Amino acid sequence: MSIIRVALDVPLSTLFDYFVSEAMQIEIGQRVLVPFGRKQVLGIAMEWAESSDLAAGRIKPLAQVLDDVPPLPQDMLTLLRFCSDYYHFPLGMTALSALPARLRALEPVKFKQALDYALSAAGKALDVATLPKRRVVQLRILQALREAPLSGAQLRSLSPSAPAALKGLMEAGWVEACAPVPRITHTFNDAHALTAEQRRAVDAVTAQNGYGCFLLHGITGSGKTEVYVHLMHEMLQRQGQVLLLVPEINLTPQLENYFRSRFPDVDLVSLHSGLADGERAQNWLKAQSGEARIVLGTRLSVFTPLPKLGLILVDEEHDPSFKQQDGLRYSARDVAIFRANQRGVSIVLGSATPSLESWHNAQSGRYCLLKLTQRAVQPATLPVVRCMDVTKLPLQEGLSEPLLTAIEARLQRKEQSLIFINRRGYSPVLMCSACGWLSECKHCAGKLVLHMKDRSLRCHHCGHQQRVPPACPTCGDVDLKPVGIGTQRLEETLQSRFPEARILRVDRDSTRNKGTWNAMRKQIHDGEADILIGTQMLAKGHDFPNLTLVGVISPDGALYSSDFRASEKLFAQLTQVGGRAGRADKAGEVIVQSAFPNHPLFQALRAHDYESWAKTLLAERTLAGLPPFAFQALLSAESKDEQLVLKFLHQARHCAEQVGSEVEIYGVVPAAMPKRANHHRAQLLVQSDARKTLQLFLRIWKPELDTLSSQKIRWSLDIDPMEY
Ligand code: ADP
Ligand code: ZN
Ligand code: ZN
Q1: Nearest partner of 157 among 179, 183, 187, judged by Cα
Q2: Per-residue pLDDT for 2 more than 60?
Q3: Are the CB atoms for 423 and 553 separated by under 8 Å?
Q4: DSSP labels for 568-587?
């Protein structure tokens, strides 16, 4: 009998010991079933143990080894241990949260190893001249199979209807499945000759031997995607797998189609939370088996086993959605960098507006900086950015006359305009003009947002909903007015000003459904909309060639936000949204309405000068001792009972002081959203100018936190927090 240590999905930082009988075949990294309490649960065999702290009589035997899929490879287990250590999150929960749901279930999964297709004896003997000419695709397949057996992906590259044609051929007994043949070549649709800058970027990365982190800073439209494509091509030629991380789940289907069109016979899978459990597990297993050569996914895909990993690409590396906001609060970008280093491969972080963390690392020489300074398509230049001083201009429901005139000009020229709202804080709320009462949520510290369509007030934090009151609840005055601008109100205003215009509102509500969003995108592409109104959803990565005007309404909130990253995010957002304008042969224009038109942010935006803006911000951050010059951990707690929250955090603070570390320990303060769904929320920030000092401190502090009484409260520790 030997003892094996198993990771389980329980909030304890230990592994669990089980006996393994001689007869049991088991490998480290396999999924196992073990008795836990009165239940049987799924775990991952992490390591063999020499001995156990438990008395022999208390160690239970392992119930079953699941050998339906291959074990997790050693490098994955190492990665999971690193994440558990770095994010101070239980190893078992870390390990299990990295698995797709199907692989966490107690039932075995069936992995369909993809097969190749070859002519059968009957197929070889067949005289194709006897087949009717109209069976074009079948004839094409038979023809191709005469040369060599082909994979499913290769067959699909012959024709979109290949699967149906193949079915017919198999039913006729002419084609049969066979063991897959290893492939060493692939088709590459080389669309463009690279620009000199693109060439230099591609060459720098492909010349790298072993680990190297590259920051690809390319202005919008400079052809970063083309650089990724060429790097993928190179890596496929070297028989490696490529992992491409993208921020937004809404973008993956588009990108998937795009990369398929460039590599038509290469096995490509996507991984994101929008896939059905079964499909996600199959895609994951295809990556693990090495069959999938390109893996395209959102942050969770950074935990995919990739035996032949050759390159990692992180597109829009600055995007906040790479950071998970609950459970294991990892940054997929940072984990990807660790992974590249661990596997000795290159990683490319791409962005038009890199995060200050990455930019700082590129400046200090830790990352290698690659620049694309020109737009790839020749006549396309960067849009002209104009700032309108709203303190000097009358506004019509939030819209200035120059902006309205610019929209009108686009309507006449049959071009598209986009009105962009920075979501935070600019939803319409109801106000009493007599006493100043504002519609507030009784469960949260937030305001209720006015929804015109059904005349309701809704809380966007907890979902609370109520009817618009007929009079002010405080003073009884009936003169209740909306303040702030919402997408619905803008739509109404624009519609009454431009009755003929076709207006499309794209916000979280209207795009929750994947089908709706795809339909909207098609509408925009087909020129069936004249004015688009949207939040950040519309800013990201879409290419709408007929869009020539972007209007930015009320971006000022970010300039005096309590979130120190707000202005960094705003610049990134406005650059990205501005990048939507004038991409093809038409010049674009961006009109920003602000009360601070001379703010350095807008100056840099007008000059398309990310570098000087980054320099300004980095100077501010140095002075203030903020990231990237400091490393932070945020302890947050919430409860219905405010006293319990404060007591817990003050105790935690006391423990922190006892550690005797050089870290700075801040005071206990309310969270940015101090109350949500009846839960009071507060937090405690600790920080250090050295990552290592912070980590050493956390290693002592976290176990102390685990021993504090935390009844009736929820708490979490966020390392390198992005939200406060
Ligand atoms: P980015 O991701 O940097 O914003 P894209 O990769 O979307 O830019 O490229 C912008 C446009 O330029 C796309 O339409 C792309 O097809 C085109 N493009 C990219 N590289 C080249 C090139 N070398 N020659 C011609 N067109 C190119
Ligand atoms: Zn009132
Ligand atoms: Zn609420």
Answers
A1: 187
A2: yes
A3: no
A4: HHHHHHHHHHHTTSS-SSS-
CATH number at 384-427+484-619 = 3.40.50.300
CATH no., domain 196-372: 3.40.50.300
Taking CA atoms only, the protein residue closest to ligand 1 atom 6 is 223
Amino acid (1-letter code) at residue 139:
L
What is the pLDDT at residue 438?
86
In 60-103 the beta strands, taken as DSSP E runs, fall at 60-61, 64-66
* Region 143-155 average pLDDT: 88
Q: Are 459 and 443 in contact (CB under 8 A)?
A: yes
* pLDDT score for 254: 81
Q: Report the separation in Å between the CA atom of 682 and the middle of ligand 3, taken as the mean of its atom positions.
A: 17
Q: Please provide the CATH number assigned to the domain covering 631-719.
A: 3.30.70.600
Model pTM? Answer: 0.90
Residue nearest to atom 23 of ligand 1 (CA): 194
Calculate how far, in angstroms, residue 470's C-alpha sits from the geometric centre of ligand 3: 21
Q: Is the dihedral of CA 527, 529, 534, 537 positive or negative?
A: negative
pLDDT at 425: 42
Atom number in ligand 1 closest to CA 377: 26
Nearest CA to ligand 1 atom 15: 223
Pocket of ligand 1 (CB under 6 A): 192-195, 198, 218, 220-226, 376-377
User: Using only C-alpha atoms, what is the Rg of the chain?
Assistant: 29
CATH code for the domain defined by 2-104: 3.40.1440.60
Q: How confident is the model at residue 427 (pLDDT cuts 50, 70, 90)?
A: low
Asked if the model's pLDDT at residue 557 lies above 60, the reply is yes
pLDDT-derived band at 423 (thresholds 50, 70, 90) equals low
The string of pLDDT tens digits covering residues 240-261 is 999 999 997 777 778 899 999 9
- Angle in degrees, 0-180, between the axes of helices 162-171 and 136-147, rounded to the nearest 10: 80
pLDDT of residue 487: 77
Query: Which one of 192, 198, 215, 226 would you pick to mutate in the ligand 1 pocket, going by the greatest count of ligand atoms within 8 A of its CB?
Result: 226
460: CA distance to ligand 2 center in Å? 23
Share of the chain above pLDDT 70, in %: 97
How far, in Å, from the CA of 373 to the mean position of ligand 1?
12
Pairing mode of beta strands 395-396, 384-389: unpaired
Residues with CB under 5 A from ligand 3 (ion): 441, 443-444, 459, 461-462, 464
